[in-house]
Amino acid sequence: MKEFNTTAVCIPSKHYMVDLSERVAEIKKLVDAGKYFTINRARQYGKTTTLKALQQVLRNEYTVISLSFEGITNAGYQSEGEFVQSFSRLILDQSEFFGISIPDATIQALEKLAEQDPKKLKMDELFRTIRRWVLANENQIVLFIDEVDSATNNQVFLDFLGLLRDGYISREKDGAPALQSVILAGVTDVKHLKSKIRPDDEHKVNSPWNIAADFLIDMSLSDVGIKGMLDEYEADHHTGMDTETIAKLIRKYTNGYPYLVSRICQRIDQSLVPEKFDDLSKAWTEYGVDEAVKLIISESGNALFESLSGKLTNYPDLKEKLRSILMRGETVAWLPYDEEQQQLYMYGFIRNNHNTVAIANQMFEMLLYTHFIGESDKNNELKQKASEFKSIFVDADGWLDVPKIMDHFIREHNRIHKDNTEKFIEEEGRERFITYVSGIINGTGTYSVEDQTRDHKRMDLVIHYLGRRYIVEMKIWHGDRYNEKGEKQIAGYLDHYGLDTGYMLSFNFNKKKESGVKRVQIGDKVLFEGTV
User: Fold this and answer.
1) For 21-206, which CATH superfamily applies?
2) Which of 154, 377, 502, 527 counts the most CB atoms within 10 A of its CB?
3) What are the tens digits of pLDDT across the range 148-162?
4) Residue 464: strand pairing partners
5) 352 — pLDDT class (breaks 50, 70, 90)
6) Which residues, 6+ apart, have CB-to-CB distance to 379 below 8 Å?
7) CA-to-CA distance for 467 and 461, rounded, in angstroms?
8) Domain segments of the chain: what residues?
């Protein structure tokens, strides 16, 4: 029986996985055109799995040499000679252990390089061997190099890239023998690396990989692709799940981040029965997806999440900007040459949303909300009060009593923050309510914010609790007319979620305001409106 995989490469015969044939066909077009390029994507974004699938497609037409620089230790980068020997051994392994057909003369030449005194070896000797190999080989040669990040800070690797570039230019200009295609895979965008043209030249720099074609192929997983994977799982397990609905929900949480998609499925399949559900038919539901997400967000030792936390620690200014985006609805311009932004983008944590910075997916957002709330001392008293009395906010049927939550929040907020200025409250009021809610649902539910509603005026909080959703619009009061518009908007959201009851929480700075919670009927919808 197949399983969902979140470690190393996915293998179609062993693992449930999204069909990559369309993606691979697009990449093959680049190879057929003789392009050299880089596949740089975030960690656990399916690079190695994609290369494996591509290798299977190419091997009938090309000789594919698939290497990983994880096979070269630090000693292999100490000098040109050490690198030449390590690289030669990697290619020899392709023949000896993986059955790749390499001409005898090339094998002998590589063995000679591997055995020579490294102090006497130069990089160009390796490339002369490669050129002879190209001439003697029956098929064109395609070279994959995975995990290039381990080498990107090393001058020897930059020299290696420079000679690959020179070979490509000579091929295009004079028809000299060269590799058909070279694909470098890793997190780092090798195309943007710079190296000195001469060691004594302090100013003139050039990219050793400036001949690389742009790689614009979307590596995220679509809801259609996720559905295909779930259909295969369903054919084996017969859970009765609605694969289309579940696929769309998983896509919404993950924005197609391959590791997160597989991790949600893996958690549903392996962790929720019998701890949470009686059987898989109950686990493969929208409630089950919510529960899997909750488990993943709270799990310790997740390398991907630890990487995100580490990057935020390294970039405190950008961290504060992300906090402003999430908590206050501020807009931060996308700056393509900003080092901090590009680092978080390269690691898959942020994305360009119409030239503004956005968090890459909802799960990262949820993680950041938890992170920001957990480290804030300002609202600890609110959170503690919510935690102390959280049992009173759940009714006899297990439903959250959101009107009661709003009513208690308003009273506690006014007690604690009654002397604060209007500006201070406006900037942080919504953060305070999210903090208060987190103290109530922690360990039982999760929450997210609808991305399209996050701005200075309003923000829709979606509370996920025991398989139910509660939509709370948080907004700044801008008069009765704007409030009526907000009522119609949230009624539309309730239709989208198939709900008949919604909630609005307004932060009103009019001294004549009337605090509290009231019930309002809007057509066939019921709204509970709270005013702080």
Assistant:
1) P-loop containing nucleotide triphosphate hydrolases (3.40.50.300)
2) 502
3) 988 887 889 989 999
4) 446, 469
5) very high
6) 373, 431, 432, 435, 436
7) 16
8) 21-206, 223-298, 378-532
DSSP readout, 343-410? HHHHTTSEEESSSBEEES-HHHHHHHHHHHHHH-STTHHHHHHHHHTGGGGB-TTS-B-HHHHHHHHH
Q: Name the one residue in this structure whose structure tokens are 């009593």.
A: 401
Distance from chain centroid for Cα 198:
38
**Encoding tokens for residue 99?**
């059955």
Task: With beta carbons less than 8 A apart as the criterion, state whether 179 and 58 touch.
Answer: no
Assess whether the previous peptide bond of 118 is cis (omega < 30° from 0).
no
Q: Which two tokens stand for residue 182?
A: 């070279």
The per-residue pLDDT of the chain, averaged, comes to: 90
Residue 119 DSSP label: G
pLDDT digits (tens, 9 = 90+) for 252-281: 999 999 999 999 999 999 999 999 999 999
Radius of gyration of the chain (CA): 28
On whether the CB atoms of residues 504 and 472 are closer than 8 A, the answer is yes
> What tokens were used for 335?
């700056």
Q: How would you write 181-240 as a 3-class SS string? A: EEEEEECCCHHHCCEECCCCCCCCEECCCCCCECCCCCCCCCHHHHHHHHHHHHHHHCCC
Residue type, 407: D
C-alpha to C-alpha distance for 466 and 463, rounded to whole angstroms: 10
Q: Write the DSSP string, 442-495.
A: TTTEEEEE-GGG-SSSEEEEEEEETTEEEEEEEEE---HHHHHHHHHHHHHHHH
- The answer to whether the beta carbons of residues 1 and 150 sit under 8 Å apart is no
Q: How far apart (Å, rounded) are the C-alpha atoms in residues 281 and 237?
A: 9
Question: Which of 193, 162, 14, 168 is closest to 80 using CA atoms?
Answer: 162
What six digits make up the tokens of 36? 């050299």
* H/E run at residue 341: helix 339-346
Cα dist from 458 to 191, 239, 309, 425, 453, whole Å: 41, 40, 28, 14, 6
pLDDT in tens, 294-331: 999 999 888 899 988 888 888 898 898 898 888 888 88
